[in-house]
Design goal:
With 269 residues, the chain is α/β, with parallel strands linked by helices. Helix content is 40%, strand content 24%. It is built from 11 helices and 10 strands. The strands form 2 sheets. A 6-stranded mixed β-sheet has the order 6-7-8-3-9-10, sandwiched between helices. The protein is globular.
């Protein structure tokens, strides 16, 4: 099988929302643990082709919402639609096809410690595709190059990588199946300012060249300023506001004012 044939396989999956503006729609979602409600009647739309920055105070449920969308945390109520499919009613075949069209970078990378970078990138390929070892090696090499890692990183274990290299290797795995939608959980956390800026540039370039839709949970003001088309703010168990950076600067909510126009934000400016 050729690389072109492999790319055709990964792209030939359903999209009942083709041509629509929203790739992801969340309606009335409620999530809780025991008696504690984390998210309540939450609505959110992510537009096709945008980089959406998702912010909120610590413990407000940013990562919980992302994990709920991915199906890793159960919801108590509401609907989540991706590519036009309601994930609650999608068949197993539809669900697997949908999952082939998204990639995930978890906050700490979540690479398998006993696998090399190349082997980590190949995990989604082994799960969803039937490819020869040679073709998987070729595709992994392409992904390693795409995220700016040196080729000698392919045979290294995660423990042999720097923090920035772990992030890039995790992103390469997220891109293994040429997804349309990428979830990033705190992608620049733990990176120095230079490394964080370089990673922001990488995300922006990949989004532009590959036509990705990016859902990015972040605390990084620089990321919000430099690469996000819109920003959603989580608070009081729901999305308090969503819009451009200019919209956030004009918002009168106390937390939003403090975050975007407070002392730390002013020092950045």
């Amino acid at each position: 099988m050729s690389i072109a044939e492999a790319e055709q396989i990964t792209s030939s999956v359903p999209d009942t929302g083709e041509g629509s503006e929203n790739v992801l729609s969340v309606r009335g979602v409620t999530v809780g643990f025991g008696s504690k409600i984390i998210l309540e009647n939450l609505d959110l739309d992510v537009r096709r082709g945008e980089v959406l920055g998702f912010v909120g105070g610590s413990g407000t449920g940013k990562s919980v919402l992302m994990r709920t969308i991915l199906g890793l945390t159960p919801k108590r109520a509401g609907e989540i639609s991706v590519f036009g499919y309601d994930l609650s009613t999608a068949t197993e075949k539809e669900r697997r096809a949908i999952e082939r069209r998204w990639g995930v970078l978890f906050q700490q990378g979540a690479l398998f410690s006993s696998l090399t970078v190349k082997q980590n990138i190949q995990v989604p390929m082994r799960e969803h595709l039937k490819l020869s070892p040679q073709l998987m090696d070729e595709l992994a090499t392409l992904k390693i190059e795409l995220v700016g890692l040196p080729q000698d990183a392919a045979d290294k274990l995660p423990s042999e990588l720097s923090g920035g290299m772990v992030k890039r290797a995790s992103l390469a795995r997220a891109l293994a199946l040429d997804p349309d939608l990428v979830f990033l959980d705190e992608p620049t956390s733990g990176l120095d300012p230079i490394g964080a800026a370089a990673f922001d540039t990488l995300i922006a370039n990949l989004s532009s060249t590959l036509g990705l839709t990016v859902y990015m949970v972040t605390h990084d003001l620089d990321s919000l300023h430099s690469i996000c088309d819109r920003i959603a703010v989580l608070g009081k168990k729901r999305v308090l506001a969503i819009g451009t950076l200019d919209d956030m600067m004009k918002n009168d909510d106390d937390w939003i004012k403090s975050y975007f126009r407070g002392e730390r934000a002013l020092r950045r400016a």
